[in-house]
Amino acid sequence: MTMYENFEQLIKNFDGATTESVLSYFLKSHKGRIALASSFGAEDQVLTDMVASLDPTTKIFSLDTGRLHEETYRVMDQTNRKYGISIDVYAPEREELEALYRQQGSYGFRDSIENRKACCHVRKIVPLKRALKGMDVWITGLRRSQSPTRELMRLVEWDEGNNLIKLNPLIEWDEKRVWDYIKEHKVPYNALHDEGFPSIGCEPCTRAVKEGEDLRAGRWWWENPEHKECGLHLRGA
Hints:
Rossmann fold, 10% strand, alpha/beta
């Protein structure tokens, strides 16, 4: 049986299971080798609340690109305080970041998709590799309805780029369910969500969305929708 067939069986086993029971299974079966990645968006905050209640010793980490919103740092602090945890923070490598500035300046990432992906690589992909070192499972807050690039994602996947299991517990959730959970459980959330930011990344690459726009329309708004991934969640990457 191939790994992909194993995943198909896993998904079948979880048919009808709650998100908490799926998380509980992986937190126990991969204890010490499983991590939740958080950008402090609404979905990641839901998962942090669940993980902290199921096993507060689980590794939770975030990538500080050096260009985050002030509101993001604020909710990071609120989250640590509420759950009595210390979220691990990974930053870009100094030499790579300095080289990026020499090549692009401060806003060269808007000149081309290649430049933008190079910026994301230095600020996100490289730190992610360090954060996931030694891990077997990477928990994400991805939802299928977030964007065209995520429509085919599954509950359990194999991430070839990082050589581990990628678990997407909220993959079937809609936006209403996310916010119902946040309100019911009094989960701290990024204040930018109240200002029209459904998706929040780096400050220069994120804007509020207009009524009727796609949830990720505010991310890299100068690019076409099919390109709007930083490289962290490319299938087969």
